[in-house]
């Protein structure tokens, strides 16, 4: 709780406005700051030195990555130039455990740095993690909503085209990956317009509703019901009508009993969560 309140304070601090920008001259400044003893920071930055892994600890780079958000919070975004090179070095580390550690905390770092630095320095790293091993991608996926909500609308829309890539995993039996995707899509409904939801998130939801694993399907029923609610409340009523017609066509009239069962479960969820007025449901 203390950490959250501190992050909230940093994010809203008028002295560290998100509109602040650093000139190229300031970016080239040496890694000098006056928040902590410089020798201490230099020791921390040296943790990425390959020789340290051989002489001190083979996992020293992972420890460095784990502590980086805390160091960034302590130094403040005005001193991000001290950490930027180290962060990029860690993000391209050969050990997936190091990259995984950064992937799990990139959303927290984005809060600390603000939107301008996030767009310039974190988004390229984030995009790299999206194409990484599943062990790294899951860190990004688990906090997808937390990261995307910090981006500008135009930048956020670019990721609509990439969401379907999360359906493909290194191991097809990794159903928890798809379950996490369904959970995140529920949260992402608040970030996108009715048109984007219908065009991009609807096909994903229908695919997840037909998943082989029941745990994934159950979360997907909730996703579809929340989608119905969101589209019903939108100013364009045609989206929700088209969605319901597709539900009937794909599931209610499905030649497989499992598809028809899916339709019943979706109807149950829509009623239980009060996603539609009863006359509209009827």
UniProtKB/TrEMBL annotation:
Q: Which InterPro entries does this UniProt record tie to the protein?
A: ARM-like, ARM-type_fold, PP2A_Regulatory_Subunit_A
Source domain of life: Eukaryota
* Gene Ontology molecular function, alphabetical: protein phosphatase regulator activity
Please provide the record's keywords in A-Z order: Repeat
Q: Which GO terms describe its cellular component?
A: cytoplasm
Q: Looking at the keywords, is Oxidoreductase present?
A: no
- Residue ranges annotated as compositionally biased, kind Basic and acidic residues, are 1-14
Task: Cite the residue spans of the region called Disordered.
Answer: 1-31
Regions annotated as coiled coil:
none
Any idea what this protein is called?
Answer: PP4R1 phosphatase
């Amino acid at each position: 709780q203390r950490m959250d309140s501190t992050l909230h304070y940093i994010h809203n601090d008028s002295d560290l406005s998100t509109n602040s920008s650093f000139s190229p001259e300031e970016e080239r400044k040496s890694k000098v700051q006056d928040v902590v003893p410089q020798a201490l920071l230099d020791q921390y930055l040296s943790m990425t030195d390959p020789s340290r892994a051989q002489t001190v600890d083979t996992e020293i780079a992972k420890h460095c990555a784990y502590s980086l958000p805390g160091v960034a919070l302590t130094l403040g975004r005005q001193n991000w130039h001290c950490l930027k090179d180290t962060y990029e070095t860690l993000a391209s580390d050969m050990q997936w455990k190091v990259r995984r550690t950064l992937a799990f905390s990139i959303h927290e770092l984005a809060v600390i740095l603000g939107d301008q630095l996030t767009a310039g320095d974190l988004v390229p790293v984030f995009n790299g993690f999206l194409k990484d091993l599943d062990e790294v991608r899951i860190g990004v996926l688990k906090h997808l909503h937390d990261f995307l909500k910090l981006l500008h609308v135009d930048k956020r829309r670019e990721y609509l085209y990439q969401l379907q890539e999360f359906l493909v995993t290194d191991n097809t039996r990794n159903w928890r990956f798809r379950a996490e995707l369904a959970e995140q899509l529920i949260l992402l409904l608040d970030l996108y317009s009715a048109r984007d939801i219908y065009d991009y998130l609807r096909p994903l939801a229908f695919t997840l509703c037909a998943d082989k694993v029941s745990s994934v399907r159950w979360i997907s029923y909730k996703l579809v019901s929340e989608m119905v609610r969101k589209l019903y409340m939108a100013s364009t009523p045609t989206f929700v009508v088209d969605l319901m017609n597709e539900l009937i066509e794909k599931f209610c009239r499905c030649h497989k009993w499992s598809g028809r069962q899916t339709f019943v479960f979706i109807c149950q969820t829509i009623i239980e969560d009060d996603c539609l007025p009863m006359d509209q449901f009827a």
